[in-house]
Amino acid sequence: MTSHWCDFQNADVIMNIGSNSAENHPVSSKWIHKAHERGAKWIVVDPRYTRTAEQADIYCPIRSGTDIAFYGGLYNYIIENDLWQHEYVLNYTNASYLLDPEYEFDPATGFFSGWDEEAGKYSNHSWHYQVESETVWDTSEGGDYAWAVAEGVPEFTPPVVQHPKRDMTLQDPLCVFQQFKKHYSRYDMDTVCSICGMDKETLELVYSTYASTGQPGKAGAVLYALGQTQHTYGAQNTRAMSVLQLLLGNIGVPGGGLNALRGEPNVQGATDMGMLVNEHPAYLKWANTTDRSSLRKWLESQTYSDGYYTNKPKFLISSLKEWFGENATVENDYGYDWWPKVPTSPDFTMMSTFELMDQGVIKGYFNWGMNPCHSAPNAGFVRRSMAKLDWLVVADQVATESATFWKAPDMNPEEIDTTVYFLPCALIYEKPGIILNSGRWMQYRNKAVEPWDMAKPDYEMCDLIWREVCRLYEEEGGANPDPILKTKWDYYVDGKIDPRPVAWALNGYRVAGTECNTTSAAPKTDLLPGYGDLKADGSTACAMWIYSGFWSNNDAPLDAAEQPIGRRDNSDASGIGLNSTWAYAWPNNRRILYNRASADMAGKPWNPEKVLVEWTGDKWNLVDAADFVAAKNGKPVPPNDKAFFMLWEQNGRLESYGMADGPLPEHYEPFETPVESNPLNGALNSPCMQFARNESTRKGDSAEYPIVATTYSVTEMWQTGGQSRMCPALVEAMPSQFVEISEELAAEKGIEKGDKVRVFNNRGSVVVDAMVTKRIKPLTVHGETQHLVGLTHHYSWAGVFGTGDTVNDLTPNVGDPNSFTPEYKAFLVDIEKA
Ligand SMILES: Nc1nc2c(c(=O)[nH]1)N[C@H]1C(S)=C(S)[C@@H](COP(=O)(O)OP(=O)(O)OC[C@H]3O[C@@H](n4cnc5c(=O)[nH]c(N)nc54)[C@H](O)[C@@H]3O)O[C@H]1N2
Ligand SMILES: Nc1nc2c(c(=O)[nH]1)N[C@H]1C(S)=C(S)[C@@H](COP(=O)(O)OP(=O)(O)OC[C@H]3O[C@@H](n4cnc5c(=O)[nH]c(N)nc54)[C@H](O)[C@@H]3O)O[C@H]1N2
Ligand SMILES: [Mo]
């Protein structure tokens, strides 16, 4: 989220697209209703008439998997009707930048320039800007970048700042704005309706309502979640929404933003802290075998030439100092070579993991707090892959499908040799810890009760395993000992592993002044006030630069309640619900990211009633924490056009060279699609879909499986049910899985409400209850009737209550080339009465 939950109250228009917030994030409704009661318009774009749609003003149906056509049509509408926010787009985005003359999109083939057929991927060279001039970092004494050559800072060649060529009249055919306009001129409303299966009147109403937020002072909020991300072009969907918000000047303003309503508690914290194969904690990149194979290469490839990420060396060296403690010195590149190097191939993303198990490459597996035999796409394939493991460790609070995979109805235990270890974990109420919400608020929760029976908090289990691995290395030796034995691991209070010294590590501290391992009630710490104090010379340690500041009170380093994270003052000095004295929002307690964009070029807020930052003529009045350079060396910096300072251009990207699958979002059909052509371009699917060629995906075609299926959650259940299916009251409230079927399709198939229905495709077959409903309507796609069904996916065989078939036996294990997220939201099936 660029914004936070309470900020929905400031919106003039709210659009839920691919998010059923009333169902999955019920508390968000409180803030949406505040806006709604004030007269804000509420739009829902969803294949199903959901519990959210029921409360909204406008419901627009859409065929699953066609959102980019919808956004492309909206851009075209905004440009044709001159509804974009001119001053914002001109100054705060890259609209005026000239693209490389080689840049091209060919509608006949559906390819952008740079496609390499042999490699099966794009080279992004031609997606870059033309360069006007270059400048270099001033590293001389007293210069802005003197720190980069200070003692203790590893040697690297600073990047050259390339100033792009711009045309501030936006007339040059090579400028981003003109290329963008040309690209989306193909997306007329008739074409969009024909692809997405909606009627033109509704579409026009949605377009005109949402585009009304392009006026300065008006704000539109986009709320999205899995209906956007779980596609083979899910990351492009996300970009498409960012671009929409930039065109309308809706990013960085109160009531605006691009708001991912997030999932598992604690998915925000988990992604921040690097529970991803490609991102190191705090969104720095892991070492790899190519452009990050040494510290110097990392610094040279990752440090931005301009903007805030010029500071990356400080973040990285501070991270290495936490990772390896006193073993990390400038002479040994701060231990960089002890980091594992992520290989280019194979990749170890979730779906690949099961391919590698199937191939016998992965022989042992730690399955920690997840249940892929139920939740992963093509779950039958996952179970068959797991059956090839030598050993499996499952850490969970209940015996899940993954912990008991050999007992699945389609498994034969006699043929399975895998040894399974089960580690019972403490529940959230049985351990203290930090949790983040979608709005990046960090909060601390205390332990309520002792863990049950043998169960332990996860960090205690990790500590026991870690210490045992270290003991074995010390006593018996082994391959590659340094990455293990040089690691700093001293997060103990009174000899017990403890989350509080971990909090110091996340916050950052001066190395000379802090001792993590403590037996004292008043431990010695020199915690930093924020990431502005981080150094690249080894004098500071910090595992998570983005969190820095949340645990910075040196007077009570062991007391969460006395830390910024523990604040519970709900008075609101801002008057617009920033609530800056409640908890701590990363980064720097900033509630609304990119808040510089809430004011015009002169620093005057677009909406004088809702001020985040304001230039008063001689200084900035900061209601929210600044998201830009407001002062330098104690002197105020007057307003300029650098509203997005986390990018080197410091301008938002309508066009971006950073994506694997194209510089502009382009409509492609899902991996499995009911249609045979794409009226917008010559490619049916995205050429970059991940894993589409793997045999295990067992692609089905529309002749055999003509119906589009999508999957989703319900309020009464939680994902695979580890925390909800064991609760009889919840199972009573939602007693079975069901498939939502339109009355028309039900009549065609001779199905009635409550019948058992078999839903099947090449990958699997499940029997669920029929929910015959007006909430789903047949769509007209390319002139033909198209049916869509929706399935819940919470049940499976394990457990006492709420058992049923595994819906993920149907979903395809293909995904997005940027995020590797699976396509759970659009695939093909057929149905029959069981
Ligand atoms: N009670 C409860 N709350 C939950 C969860 C839970 O299991 N139970 N899960 C949590 C988790 S982990 C997550 S990630 C979030 C998920 O939150 P949401 O993303 O809101 O969850 P879903 O119900 O999966 O999907 C949202 C909507 O997307 C629609 N949709 C499907 N395909 C498309 C499409 O192609 N385009 C568009 N525009 N819409 C589409 C679906 O019909 C559905 O209404 O919820 C969290 N909250
Ligand atoms: N078809 C379909 N499939 C989907 C989705 C979809 O929309 N459609 N949504 C996807 C999404 S968004 C998500 S997030 C995934 C979720 O997929 P999973 O993460 O595999 O599903 P969960 O049921 O949330 O599993 C979490 C497990 O962690 C256990 N657990 C809870 N607390 C703790 C703890 O403190 N420690 C440990 N060690 N274990 C704990 C729970 O008991 C549970 O078994 O599912 C995905 N699968
Ligand atoms: Mo999720």
From TrEMBL:
Domain Molybdopterin dinucleotide-binding residue range list: 709-827
Lineage of producing organism: Bacteria, Bacillati, Actinomycetota, Coriobacteriia, Eggerthellales
GO cellular component, one term: cell envelope
Cofactor(s) this protein cannot do without: [4Fe-4S] cluster
PANTHER family: FORMATE DEHYDROGENASE-O MAJOR SUBUNIT, TUNGSTEN-CONTAINING FORMYLMETHANOFURAN DEHYDROGENASE 2 SUBUNIT B
Segments forming domain Molybdopterin oxidoreductase: 6-462
Similarity comment: family membership: Belongs to the prokaryotic molybdopterin-containing oxidoreductase family.
Native organism: Slackia faecicanis
Gene Ontology annotations of biological process type: anaerobic respiration
Annotated localization: Cell envelope
Annotated GO MF terms: 4 iron, 4 sulfur cluster binding; electron transfer activity; molybdenum ion binding; molybdopterin cofactor binding; oxidoreductase activity
InterPro entries: Asp_de-COase-like_dom_sf, MoPterin_dinucl-bd_dom, Mopterin_OxRdtase, Mopterin_OxRdtase_prok_CS
Main location: other
Protein name per its UniProtKB record: Molybdopterin dinucleotide-binding protein
